[in-house]
C-alpha cells in the first residue's frame, strides 16, 4: 500500500500544481479568482463525500456493486482521490493541435489535457507507485480517460449512434483487467467531477448508456443516479 499523505503532499508541492494555482478554471470567468487548483481540490473533497454517503438507495446499490466486483472500497477511494488531484492538471499545457508519443504506448496521440495530466502523474508519482503496478495502472489510466465519456456524449449528440460494447470493453480493460471494474472507476469519478458544471446531462447519459451497452451484456446491475444523488 502506498503512503496517501505523502503522495498528496508531493502533488501539491509539484511544479504542475504551482502552475495550476496560477491558471483560472476554464468553467469560470478570468476575473472570478477561481483557479484550476480549486477545481482539483473540490473534486478531491467530492470523492471523500461520495464514499461517506449513507448506504441507502443509489449509494447502497453502488457500493454493493463495488463489493460484487471484488474491489476494496477504501483502496478505490484512495486511488480516486489521487486521480482527483491530477485529472485536469494537464490543462496548463494542453495543445490539441499537437501530436505527441503516448507516454505508455509510444503511439501518436493528440496532446489533450487528459494525456498531459497522465504525463504529469508519471513525472510526480512514478517512484511512489513503482511498488504497486496494478494501482499505478488504475490511477494513471483513470486520469487519462476521465473525460472520455464527455467526448462520447458529444459524439452521440451529433450522430445519435451509441458506443458499442467493444468500445466500452477497450476502455474498461485499459484501467482494470476485471470486467466492469475499470468502467466503475470512471463512473464513480464522474459523480465527483461536477465542480463548475452547470449541466450534468453527460453524466446521466454515461450511466444509462454504459448500462445498456455493456453492463447488461454481462448481467451486472448498474444503478442509475438521479440528479439529486449527484448534486
**Quaternary assembly:** single chain
What's the Cα radius of gyration?
17 Å
Main sheet properties: 2 strands, antiparallel
Strand arrangement, largest sheet?
Answer: 1-2
How many distinct folded domains? 1
Tell me, rounded to a whole number, the average pLDDT. 96
Q: Distance between termini?
A: 32 Å
Poorly predicted residue ranges: none
The percentage helix is: 55-70%
Shape designation: globular
- Our estimate of the beta-strand percent is under 5%
In short:
This protein has helices spanning 4-12, 15-20, 36-51, 57-68, 73-86, 113-129, 133-145, 148-159, 165-175, 181-192, 201-215, 227-230, and strands at 95-101, 108-111. The protein has 231 residues and is mainly α.
Output the keywords.
globular, two-stranded antiparallel ribbon, mainly alpha, 231 residues, single chain
Could you describe the 3D structure shown?
Helix 3 (36-51) packs across helix 10 and helix 5 (73-86) crosses helix 7 (133-145). This protein has helices at residues 4-12, 15-20, 36-51, 57-68, 73-86, 113-129, 133-145, 148-159, 165-175, 181-192, 201-215, 227-230, and strands spanning 95-101, 108-111. It is built from twelve helices and two strands; from the N terminus they run H-H-H-H-H-E-E-H-H-H-H-H-H-H. It has a two-stranded antiparallel ribbon. A hairpin with a 6-residue loop joins strand 1 and strand 2.
Present the secondary structure layout:
Blueprint: H1 4-12, H2 15-20, H3 36-51, H4 57-68, H5 73-86, E1 95-101, E2 108-111, H6 113-129, H7 133-145, H8 148-159, H9 165-175, H10 181-192, H11 201-215, H12 227-230
Antiparallel strand pairs: 1-2
Helix pairs in contact: 1-5, 3-5, 3-10, 5-7, 6-7, 8-11, 9-10, 10-11
Amino acid at each position: 500500500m502506498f503512503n496517501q499523505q505523502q503522495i498528496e503532499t508531493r502533488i501539491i508541492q509539484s511544479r504542475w500544481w504551482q502552475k495550476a494555482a496560477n491558471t483560472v478554471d476554464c468553467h469560470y470567468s478570468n476575473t472570478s479568482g477561481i483557479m484550476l487548483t480549486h477545481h482539483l481540490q473540490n473534486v478531491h473533497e467530492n470523492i471523500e463525500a461520495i464514499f461517506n454517503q449513507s448506504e441507502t438507495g443509489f449509494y447502497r446499490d453502488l457500493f454493493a456493486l463495488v463489493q460484487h466486483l471484488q474491489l476494496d472500497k477504501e483502496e478505490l477511494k484512495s486511488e480516486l482521490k489521487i486521480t482527483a488531484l491530477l485529472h485536469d492538471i494537464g490543462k496548463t499545457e494542453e495543445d490539441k493541435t499537437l501530436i505527441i508519443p503516448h507516454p505508455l504506448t509510444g503511439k501518436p496521440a493528440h496532446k489533450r489535457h487528459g494525456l498531459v495530466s497522465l504525463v504529469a502523474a508519471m513525472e510526480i508519482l512514478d517512484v511512489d507507485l513503482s511498488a504497486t503496478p496494478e494501482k499505478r495502472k488504475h490511477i494513471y489510466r483513470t486520469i487519462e480517460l476521465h473525460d472520455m465519456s464527455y467526448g462520447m456524449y458529444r459524439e452521440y449528440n451529433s450522430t445519435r449512434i451509441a458506443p458499442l460494447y467493444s468500445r466500452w470493453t477497450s476502455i474498461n480493460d485499459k484501467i482494470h483487467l476485471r470486467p466492469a471494474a475499470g468502467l466503475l472507476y470512471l463512473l464513480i469519478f464522474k459523480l465527483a467531477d461536477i465542480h463548475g458544471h452547470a449541466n450534468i446531462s453527460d453524466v446521466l447519459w454515461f450511466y444509462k448508456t454504459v448500462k445498456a451497452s455493456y453492463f447488461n451484456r454481462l448481467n451486472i446491475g448498474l444503478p442509475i443516479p438521479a440528479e439529486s444523488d449527484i448534486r
